[in-house]
Amino acid sequence: ESAQMGLTFIILGLILMSNDKVSDEVLFKFLKSLGVYEEDKNLGKNARTTQSSSSASSIDADVLELFDGDVRKFINDVLVGKQQYLKREKVQTPNPDVEVFEYSWGERADNEVKESSVFKMVCEVFECDGKMFKEQMERIKKKEGLDDEFFNFQTQK
Fold it and tell me: Which residues make Cβ contacts (< 8 Å) with residue 143, sequence separation at least 6?
């Protein structure tokens, strides 16, 4: 369960730092770079994969087990559908045959999670000063009524 919440907060951080929306392509490329997602190469670039432990996967079997073998399904069924930490919306594209989705913070995340806490986590993970992300910092300050003092946290290097 803590691994699932960790993934949830990582995704919320990506969305926050991407001006509150992220395409499914960007999200799953990011998760692939973290080693928790892999597309099914047999189905092509836009494939939606089912990651089973029986397939040849570069993802650790223990990681896959945490998400019932399919990270994309976990995100869409659990984080979007059941828990509503994320919202998933179809985006209009010039080609009606191509489905593109965007993810944003869901109702539960908006109600239970402070953007400032996620922002601080992102800065700690990347060992950087929050003032490096002026646009996000200003948006959070305005939304949560924070002053500059909040953003004076020091990351440990």
Answer: 115
Measured CA to CA, the distance from residue 71 to residue 52 in angstroms comes to 10
User: What's at 121, amino acid-wise?
Assistant: M
Give the burial string for 11-33 (b: 16+ CB within 10 Å, else e).
bbbbbbbbeeebebeebbebbee
| pLDDT tens by residue, the chain, 157 residues | 788 888 999 999 999 999 999 999 999 999 999 888 877 654 344 444 444 433 445 666 766 666 766 889 999 999 999 999 999 999 999 998 989 999 999 999 999 999 999 999 999 988 888 888 999 999 999 999 998 888 877 655 5
Pair 118, 9: CB distance under 8 Å: yes
